[in-house]
């Protein structure tokens, strides 16, 4: 038993070291914190704030602790603290001030940065604490709109540029997904005079369910019915579901960059396989122009979706 425990401890220590040795370039840091590399270098030269480390071949890099500190510095700076004042603070003082800011749950900038920090460190407790605080203070709808959707967009950029490990992105997205499922279960569906039926699904090559689950939450909140099929539904199966369920609307959410830039081809293909009005939401809808099409309604943001449901 003792030998097994010691082996387990040794394995855990190796696991921790594995994540501690991650090296971030200044372009990685720029993507994480949203501050230009030039500004980061000015902070370093002028105030000696978070000087980078160097490899044996003199290449500059930052480690996980450096990244956490820079995230904290940006959180303070964007909430009125001058860099010259921050530079005079100890690491503990910076940490304490950021902790005070975190309790202001509707401070979107701070929550975005602290979620990023929790994701980097695989800190489930911290990530869940932020989610809980934001939802209790603002409700899930506003939390999704001003915190989680911007966070997801940032994670997508970091993932695309290789600034984070895929496992960090999976870690964060699964925690958000699980929390939305909990919030769906908590909703007491109101009785409405004429509830509509929605078929919810993601087309082939679209795997991110967070946005679609949020739509499911909204539909339940407004008293409508939904058949949730999930991610990457084969087109050949849609007609069977529509014939059986007889929905009033089909609803998809497009967020994955794997779909390519010609989003209209994806939307057109989906529309060709459904014979009911099609609603399309997601970050890609706000980034690319959707061509008009019969029975097609693009919803570019949370407000558009809420307004549409209110008018039903």
From TrEMBL:
Single GO molecular function: DNA-binding transcription factor activity
Keywords assigned: DNA-binding, Repressor, Transcription, Transcription regulation
Domain HTH merR-type: 23-92
Listed Pfam families: B12-binding_2, MerR_1
InterPro entries (alphabetical): Cbl-bd_cap (IPR003759), Cobalamin-bd_sf (IPR036724), DNA-bd_dom_put_sf (IPR009061), MerR-type_HTH_dom (IPR000551), MerR_fam (IPR047057), Meth_synthase_dom (IPR036594)
Protein name, per record: MerR family transcriptional regulator
SMART domains from the UniProt entry: HTH_MERR (SM00422)
């Amino acid at each position: 038993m003792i030998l097994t425990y010691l082996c387990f401890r040794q394995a855990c220590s190796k696991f921790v070291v594995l994540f501690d040795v991650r090296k971030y370039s200044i372009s990685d840091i720029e993507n994480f914190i949203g501050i230009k590399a030039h500004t980061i270098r000015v902070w370093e030269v002028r105030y000696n704030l978070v000087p980078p480390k160097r490899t044996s071949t003199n290449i500059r890099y930052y480690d996980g602790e450096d990244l956490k500190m820079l995230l904290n510095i940006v959180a303070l700076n964007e909430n009125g603290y001058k860099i010259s004042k921050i530079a005079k603070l100890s690491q503990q003082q910076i940490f304490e001030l950021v902790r005070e800011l975190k309790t202001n749950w509707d401070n979107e900038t701070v929550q975005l940065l602290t979620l990023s920090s929790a994701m980097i460190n695989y800190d489930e407790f911290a990530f869940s604490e932020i989610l809980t605080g934001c939802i209790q203070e603002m409700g899930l709808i506003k939390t999704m709109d001003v915190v989680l959707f911007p966070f997801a967009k940032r994670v997508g950029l970091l993932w695309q540029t290789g600034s984070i490990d895929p496992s960090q992105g999976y870690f964060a997205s699964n925690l958000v997904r699980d929390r939305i499922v909990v919030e769906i279960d908590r909703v007491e569906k109101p009785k409405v005079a004429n509830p509509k039926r929605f078929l919810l699904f993601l087309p082939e090559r679209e795997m991110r369910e967070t946005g679609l689950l949020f739509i499911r939450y909204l539909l339940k909140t407004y008293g409508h019915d939904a058949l949730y099929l999930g991610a990457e539904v084969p087109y050949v199966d849609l007609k069977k579901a529509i014939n059986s369920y007889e929905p009033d609307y089909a609803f998809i959410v497009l967020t994955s960059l794997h779909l390519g830039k010609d989003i209209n081809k994806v939307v057109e293909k989906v529309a060709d396989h459904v014979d009911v009005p099609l609603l399309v939401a997601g970050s890609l809808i706000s980034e690319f122009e959707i061509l008009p099409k019969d029975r097609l309604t693009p919803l570019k943001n949370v407000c558009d979706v809420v307004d549409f449901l209110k008018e039903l």
